[in-house]
Amino acid sequence: MHRLALVPPMHHHVIDSLSFTRSNKYDASLRMRVLFFAQLKDATGCDSAELAVSQPLRSDQLWDALLEKFPALAAHRASVRLACNLQYAHPQLLFNPDDEVALIPPVSGG
Fold this sequence. Notes:
By secondary structure, this protein is α/β, with parallel strands linked by helices. Helices cover 15% and strands 24% of the residues.
């Protein structure tokens, strides 16, 4: 008889608090989903992460938390746009605990 174990999807980090401690246990706090695209996936080693937060974050607080866990993002910060719930975020936006945040690298077309 085989038992199935529930595991997080590959290339996905679960982050408890701003310290980014990984955990597979259930946490009742709200989780902000953070998506990484293109070269940001390479820089972080994953395509998404979840950040357990209990209050809204300013963009600088969000960046500080992300850079603590993913220092390689620092090289991209100046050129990356933040999006919140499928819309580009303005600089004064507060990111709520249940938001989906995307880090959008520069794109080019031709």
